[in-house]
Design goal:
Number of helices: 6
Distance between the termini: 26 Å
Shape: elongated
Helix content: over 70%
Radius of gyration: 15 Å
CATH superfamily of the largest domain: Winged helix-like DNA-binding domain superfamily/Winged helix DNA-binding domain
Length: 126
């Protein structure tokens, strides 16, 4: 999954998953835009891409979307990996939570899955 995620796509996916947890499922494009501080048109483009990829489905007539089972699994996997890497960055390099999270997202979107697995295995051993 990480090979197809850019930092921007990862942020969108994580925010959509967070809003879905808070609201019980349906997520409005305007809520994504507000949370990310981006234009609604940008959100609509990303949402359309995620719908085409099967990560989201349209929900209702108010511009809402829902994570599909595939989208929920992708988001959950990203959250798990991001948290493990964030913890490793924070403890090994004494980074602030924000900096550790940014490093984790950069690693998650920039490294092959095999390299990420090796990093995560090393983080689990410490």
């Amino acid at each position: 999954m990480s090979a197809s995620l850019t930092p921007s796509r990862l942020r969108y996916l994580l925010v959509i998953a967070q809003i879905a947890r808070e609201t019980g499922g349906a997520v409005r494009c305007i809520d994504i835009a507000v949370r990310l501080g981006v234009a609604r048109a940008s959100v609509c483009r990303m949402v359309s891409a995620f719908v085409r990829e099967g990560l989201l489905t349209q929900a209702g007539g108010r511009g809402g979307v829902r994570l599909t089972a595939r989208g929920e699994e992708a988001a959950a996997q990203c959250v798990r990996r991001c948290e493990r890497l964030r913890g490793a960055m924070a403890s090994r390099f004494a980074l602030s939570d924000y900096d550790a999270r940014e490093c984790a997202m950069a690693l998650l979107t920039g490294l092959p899955d095999a390299t990420l697995a090796a990093l995560e295995a090393g983080a689990a051993e410490t």
